[in-house]
């Protein structure tokens, strides 16, 4: 069997025409299900003139209304649920930007879909029934831990449910249990690399936060593994919406039989074709990426690594800057522990880039940043170990400074 083979070849390698028919049928069924409620989404599509599922086609999906995070907040906690309460088996979500939680109710059907797409992700990364998966994504409301867990069980591998934090204990178990697969955030993989030498780990499945190709190289070298990207969001299902496989050439295979993708000015939009708890029609993710045609054994559309988030884009003196562009330059000079500070204490915004190095890289890094971004950044070089590390949850790489004390000592 080829490494990174499909988990479900019938679906993952399906004839694209046949898949499109399946998607359209599922879309129509979803529209009927939404119209069958007096829920916000049902009302919106009725207002758009849709009276039944057969009124809509995939070709014209872009004419249907979209739904956003704001709508989820407006109907917090479960106003967008369409399944009866007794069919809900669990709730996940994220604390989200701005501290407002988003909660997603799942039915048993939704958990089954999630397990399946995660089993595809794991198998595509080379995991087998003999694999041991060290799962250091957080268990809880956050979807990372339990998403990998469900997928690992579905695949029939052995899951070590470590969750995040307690790094010493993680290192110990990696040495003792010899996992071949590591699942965690890319920043935590680097934290582990600080204390791990050669290990049994062959492949890492990293996501939940932005990371660049440069970061991938760094992780691959330091841990001597293949590092694959996995993407997802709780609103849509959790991890497993799209994931790289060993052979997907740096692009992420989208589970498009369940999550129909579109882009609008670079922003990813997903329709959950099969979910029953809280399905979403044309959910605006805020994430920026591009869609690509299939290649290789799978016939699924693919997406690029995330380029950033719509709300992450910094506008500094009229220039648009994505934090991932800064990361790419930083990694050419310094370690991946860095902090970007958006300084808005005065009307002329400034960017500070704080890095760790033992060398005098200030001038060269400043010059390269200027070349790549087109703006001057203030560079602060600290001794290694001075920037805070993230042990649990997502790395915080961007701080806003509007008044008072600097977010990190040494900035002026
Ligand atoms: O982060 C789900 C997940 C868990 C994905 C584990 C991958 C691995 P949320 O907490 O709802 O869900 O956050 C979703 O995180 O809209 C993106 O902005 C960001 N994100 C997720 N995966 C990636 C990735 C999970 N591979 C939000 N690269 C999404 C960059 C990512 N950003």
Automatic annotation (TrEMBL):
Residue intervals of the AMP-dependent synthetase/ligase domain: 81-242
Top-level taxon of the source organism: Bacteria
Residues annotated as domain AMP-dependent ligase C-terminal: 318-398
Assigned keywords, A-Z: Ligase
GO biological process: phenylacetate catabolic process
SUPFAM superfamilies the UniProt entry points to: Acetyl-CoA synthetase-like (SSF56801)
GO molecular function: phenylacetate-CoA ligase activity
Pfam assignment, any one: AMP-binding_C_2
Name listed for the protein in its UniProt record: Phenylacetate--CoA ligase
């Amino acid at each position: 069997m080829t490494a990174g083979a499909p988990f479900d070849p019938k679906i993952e390698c399906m004839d694209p025409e046949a898949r499109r028919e399946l998607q359209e049928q599922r879309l129509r069924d979803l529209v009927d299900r939404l119209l069958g409620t007096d829920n916000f989404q049902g009302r919106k599509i009725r207002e758009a003139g849709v009276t039944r599922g057969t009124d809509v086609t995939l070709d014209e999906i872009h004419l249907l209304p979209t739904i956003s995070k704001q709508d989820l907040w407006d109907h917090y906690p479960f106003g967008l649920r369409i399944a009866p309460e007794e069919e809900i088996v669990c709730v996940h979500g994220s604390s989200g930007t701005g501290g407002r939680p988003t909660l997603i109710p799942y039915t048993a059907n939704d958990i089954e879909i999630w397990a399946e797409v995660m089993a595809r992700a794991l198998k595509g990364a080379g995991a087998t029934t003999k694999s041991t998966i060290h799962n250091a994504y957080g268990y809880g409301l956050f979807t990372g831990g339990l998403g990998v867990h469900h997928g690992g069980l579905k695949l029939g591998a052995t899951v070590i449910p470590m969750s995040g934090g307690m790094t010493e204990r993680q290192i110990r178990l990696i040495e003792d249990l010899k996992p071949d697969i590591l699942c965690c955030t890319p920043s935590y993989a680097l934290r582990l690399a600080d204390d791990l030498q050669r290990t049994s780990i062959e492949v890492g499945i990293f996501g939940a936060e932005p990371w660049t190709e440069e970061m991938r190289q760094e992780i691959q070298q330091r841990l001597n593994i293949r590092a694959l990207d996995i993407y997802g969001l709780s609103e849509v299902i959790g991890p497993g919406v799209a994931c790289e496989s060993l052979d997907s050439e740096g692009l992420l295979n989208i589970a498009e039989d369940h999550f129909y993708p579109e882009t609008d000015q670079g922003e990813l939009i997903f329709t959950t074709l099969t979910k029953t708890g809280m399905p979403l029609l044309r959910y605006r993710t805020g994430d920026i990426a591009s869609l690509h045609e299939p290649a290789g054994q799978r016939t699924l559309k693919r997406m690029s690594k995330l380029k950033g988030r719509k709300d992450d884009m910094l506008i500094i003196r009229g220039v648009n800057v994505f934090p991932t562009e800064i990361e790419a330059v930083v990694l050419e000079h310094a370690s991946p522990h860095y902090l970007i500070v958006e300084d808005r204490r005065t009307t002329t915004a400034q960017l500070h880039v704080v890095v760790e190095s033992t060398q005098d890289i200030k001038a060269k890094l400043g010059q390269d940043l200027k070349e790549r971004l087109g703006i001057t950044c203030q560079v602060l070089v600290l001794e290694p170990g001075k920037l805070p590390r993230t042990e649990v949850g997502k790395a915080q790489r961007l701080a806003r400074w509007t008044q008072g004390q600097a977010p990190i000592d040494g900035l002026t």
